Amino acid sequence: GAVVSQHPSWVICKSGTSVKIECRSLDFQATTMFWYRQFPKQSLMLMATSNEGSKATYEQGVEKDKFLINHASLTLSTLTVTSAHPEDSSFYICSAPSDSSYEQYFGPGTRLTVT
Amino acid sequence: GDSVTQMEGPVTLSEEAFLTINCTYTATGYPSLFWYVQYPGEGLQLLLKATKADDKGSNKGFEATYRKETTSFHLEKGSVQVSDSAVYFCALSEGGGSEKLVFGKGTKLTVNP
Q1: Strand stretches in B1-113, DSSP E
Q2: For residue A103, what are the CA distances in angstroms to A6, A106, B56, B100, B106?
Q3: Across all residues in chain B, what is the average pLDDT?
Q4: Do the Cβ atoms of A43 and B99 come within 8 Å?
Q5: Which of the listed residues A75, A107, B50, B62 has the most CB atoms within 10 Å of its CB?
Q6: Where is A112: in which H helix or E strand?
């Protein structure tokens, strides 16, 4: 099956700094990618839809100026958490649908810890 | 808005036991329904899906039937194995499998030998 990677898998940063998370589709092209956030023992919550060549679409309640999304190419989307705060600590997961199948492929996730 | 309510775990079973994880949904339209599985240290993987009422999705011995009348999509397996230990997520999509997903909270399953 198709593979989606994320980098880094785990990152620790200090309050007030910014951190970038990459999501790559390794063997297929993705014009759309989804970014989810998962709290402990909670479901995945969609944050935004990343669109190649256009602006991301954010879900209600998600601060677009805080969570910057850039879909730089057909295989790469980045999520930048700006001016991070401890409450931003979470597990961030991306996914990409394959045009040839009826499913989405998920990255392994990135654990962000803000101290 | 759309929502998915899933049986909360954790669930602990012995090998060869019967598994049921309940899932019900609320949706405005006619969604597609999915079960995703997350093995330790790995990303979510599609386990099975159903796109319309009365469809049965099946894979690796797991089954789930799309019940429109009860808005349910319960996951079942007749005989679980240790290798089935994982977190299982029920999800729906209004636009099909390539569109955004609404997830349940996940159910952690542990199967003991």
Answers
A1: 3-6, 11-14, 19-21, 23-26, 32-38, 45-50, 56-59, 62-65, 75-77, 86-93, 102-103, 107-112
A2: 18, 10, 16, 10, 18
A3: 93
A4: no
A5: A107
A6: strand A110-114
Residues in A closer than 8 angstroms to B106, CB to CB, are 41, 43
Which residues in chain B have Cβ-Cβ distances shorter than 8 Å to A103?
Answer: 34, 46, 49, 97-98
Q: pLDDT tens, A14-69?
A: 999 999 999 999 988 898 999 999 987 778 899 999 999 889 999 999 999 999 99
B contacts of A1 (beta carbons < 8 Å) = 45
**What's residue A82's pLDDT?**
97
Q: How distant is the Cα of A89 from the closest Cα of chain B, in angstroms?
A: 18
* pLDDT category of residue B97 using cuts at 50, 70 and 90: low
